């Protein structure tokens, strides 16, 4: 809309596709093509087959995918609750205290995720918080890693929120708890759903910290993808990656529909 010349718009469209296809679309298309290939010795795969998906359906992949989904759902809910609570509390703090809180929530993102995994492994390997070797430590790790994104999303939404709604409700005699649950949180619902979708997607693809702490009976799908490719089964790993991408996209589309409905209320 900022470019009024038709040739200039066409040039921008061409430039977009030239940049988008090799950087974003082509790697994903390569993974999809590899998941159906039996061999790949030339520029294109050969020997189209469904064997990798059939083996995946009868192996450990469905359990690993369910593990990833359950972990991501639990981490998203916990991160959204903690991030929203902290953002609402930070709104009432002074500038210095708010900066300190921002730094604390951004710290897990500023360091490599493998450091987060190692720190949790050390922290929860001794009583009274002995969680090493349990699914709970994986969920905690994912929650720590994605809470910063929920916190930042809700904080940004709070800065854009018109205080007139809260002031009107308070002026009519509404209690602070009623204003929060019936006025403020409904206005934040689109941002909350967007934050939940982002947390879910990030948790579904998390690998580094998970590799440090996952127990044998709680194997997320990214770990299985890494194991398959590490032993040379690239096409099997590609099929697993397609299943991971498809599941994540379906959940994000569902969250997007919820967000759209919430925006029109």
From TrEMBL:
Name of protein: ABC transporter permease subunit
UniProt KW keywords: Cell inner membrane, Cell membrane, Membrane, Transmembrane, Transmembrane helix, Transport
InterPro entries (alphabetical): MetI-like, MetI-like_sf
Principal location listed in the UniProt entry: membrane
Similarity annotation: Belongs to the binding-protein-dependent transport system permease family.
Positions of transmembrane segments: 12-37, 64-88, 100-124, 136-158, 187-214, 234-255
CDD domains in the cross-refs: TM_PBP2
One Pfam family it belongs to: BPD_transp_1
Localization in the cell: Cell inner membrane; Cell membrane
Domain ABC transmembrane type-1: 65-255
Organism this protein belongs to: Streptomyces decoyicus
Domain of life: Bacteria
Topology in the lipid bilayer: Multi-pass membrane protein
């Amino acid at each position: 809309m900022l470019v009024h010349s038709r040739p200039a718009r066409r040039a921008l469209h061409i430039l977009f596709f030239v940049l988008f296809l090799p950087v974003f679309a082509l790697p994903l298309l390569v993974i999809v093509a590899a998941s159906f290939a039996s061999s790949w010795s030339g520029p294109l795969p050969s020997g189209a087959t469904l064997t990798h998906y059939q083996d995946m359906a009868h192996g450990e992949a469905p359990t690993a995918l369910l593990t990833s989904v359950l972990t991501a759902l639990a981490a998203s809910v916990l991160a959204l609750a903690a991030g929203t609570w902290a953002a609402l509390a930070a709104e009432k703090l002074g500038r210095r205290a708010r900066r300190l809180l921002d730094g604390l929530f951004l710290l897990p993102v500023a360091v490599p995720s493998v450091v987060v995994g190692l720190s949790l492994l050390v922290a929860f390997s001794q009583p009274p918080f002995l969680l090493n070797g349990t699914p709970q430590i994986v969920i905690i790790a994912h929650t720590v890693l994605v809470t910063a994104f929920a916190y930042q999303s809700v904080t940004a939404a709070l800065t854009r929120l018109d205080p007139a709604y809260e002031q009107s409700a308070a002026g009519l005699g509404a209690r602070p708890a009623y204003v929060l649950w019936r006025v403020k949180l409904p206005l934040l619902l689109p941002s909350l759903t967007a934050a939940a979708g982002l947390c879910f997607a990030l948790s579904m693809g998390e690998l580094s910290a998970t590799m440090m702490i996952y127990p044998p009976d709680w194997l997320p799908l990214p770990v299985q993808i890494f194991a398959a490719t590490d032993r040379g089964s690239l096409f099997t790993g590609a099929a697993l990656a397609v299943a991971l991408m498809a599941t994540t996209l379906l959940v994000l589309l569902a969250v997007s529909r919820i967000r759209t409905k919430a925006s029109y209320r």
